[in-house]
Amino acid sequence: MKKEEKAKIIDSLCEQLLAKPHLYVTDITGMNAAATSNLRRSCFRNGVKLIMVKNTLLVKAMEKTGVDYSELMPVLKGTTAIMLSDVNKAPASVIKEFRKRSEMPKLKGAYVEESFYLGDESLDALVQIKSKNELIGEIVTLLQSPLQNVLGALESAPGTVAGLVKTLSERPE
Fold it and tell me: Whole-angstrom Cα distance, residue 58 to residue 87?
């Protein structure tokens, strides 16, 4: 491969790494063409981009992004496929679902929510991570609950509220 071709690939990888905040590094060694095709389809359905990469080109692209991927560098050995996504746990869910039928793909490491996860044993933790929108929804629900209790109490005792308002309005300042 010529130097110009490598530079184009590195630039393309760099753009893709910057476009998607969540990176999973996987090993799909030993998967036949049919299984790989099924994995690609599953990734596409879940908004995950699957790319086969050369480790040296990936390292150069990672360095070019300006993001510190140093903790992932040791796992970049052997055959590597990366999974990129906007949703933090989407690639982990795809892998977990796919692994019900096969041993592959294996998770080498991941960079999710500005944290590193190394090794296949961290797959379960990655599946459990909540997205930003899920966390915001939980916080809103938690904040609504006390407010709903107060409003319910006020509505159930209208005479008490009127007396409270009258007392507060008659109070000297």
Answer: 21
Domain that holds residue 109: 3-129
Tokens describing residue 43: 């990734």
* 141 and 96 together in one domain: no
Query: CA nearest 82: which of 67, 74, 71, 72?
Result: 72
Global pTM?
A: 0.73
Structure tokens at 124: 């379960």
pLDDT averaged per 10 residues in sequence order, the chain, 173 residues: 85 88 88 87 90 89 87 88 88 87 86 84 81 77 70 60 62 63
Identify whether 158 is preceded by a cis peptide bond (ω within 30 of 0): no
Q: How many domains does the chain have?
A: 2
What does the alpha-carbon distance between residue 64 and residue 58 come to, in Å, rounded to a whole number? 10
Helices 33-45 & 90-98, crossing angle to 10 degrees?
Answer: 140
- Cα separation, 135 vs 76, in Å, equals 32
